[in-house]
Amino acid sequence: MNEPLARSLMTARVTTIPPDMPVADIARLLAEHGISAVPVVAADGSLLGLVTEADLICRLAAQLDEAPSWLGSLFADPAQAAERYARAHGFTAEEVMTTEVVTIPPDMPAAAIAATLERHRIRRVLVVEHRRLLGVVSRRDLLRVVESPEREPADVPDERIRRAIVARMRRHYWAASALTVDVHDGVVEFHGFSPGPSVQRALRVMAEQVPGVKEVSDQTVPIPADIYGYGAY
């Protein structure tokens, strides 16, 4: 099964605004539509920028800004200060919008889109081709392709299952512990000292992904206190 691409996941009907829309109208639009950002698009459909709630809230926060001291002004970034001033006092979308917008092409696969959202810590990303806005892909759109892996019902030899699990463990440094793996009738058992709840949970998930696994049993035990030399004498 081919991985879905941005063009099939995106919402094509996107609310946009022109660069000359007044800030007050933008704030009203965001509130009425229940959205946190709106793209700024030129008359020819090309993407110019994005106005977010943060851009508008900046106007309120700027009311408490104080002029830096003479010494502080020597180390201040004039470009950054000017940018903040423009966003805090601008009248139109073009004056307050964010121009460094994260975009993706229409042929980007779902996994790469998810990685982009995670890397930039954003909730949605604009789909753009030749500078023209095509749509938007949100986290909710990606939820449609999140599937729970199905366990293979067919019988698989226990030794093949064991080897597959051990091979996967060796590929991950956090799983390369002194645990032993036993498999009986499709039931996987982990034995040895407990590596901790996070690793135990991850090992369970790892084992469940191997075809033929019917159940996973954690038989590990806590590390005895006296193993470090401070137990009972």
If helices are DSSP runs of H or I spanning 4 or more residues, what is the number of helices?
10
Helix content: 25-40%
CATH class descriptor of the largest domain: Alpha Beta
Please give the radius of gyration in angstroms.
27 Å
Shape: elongated
What does this structure look like?
This protein has 2 domains: 6-143, Roll (CBS-domain); 158-224, Histidine-containing Protein, Chain: A. It is built from 10 helices and 8 strands. It has helices at 6-9, 23-33, 53-61, 70-75, 78-89, 93-96, 110-120, 139-143, 158-170, 197-208; strands at 37-41, 47-52, 103-104, 124-129, 132-138, 180-184, 187-191, 215-218. A hairpin with a 5-residue loop joins strand 1 (37-41) and strand 2 (47-52). The protein is elongated.
List the defining traits of the structure above.
233 residues, alpha/beta, CBS-domain, 3-stranded mixed beta sheet, 10 helices, 37% helix, 17% strand
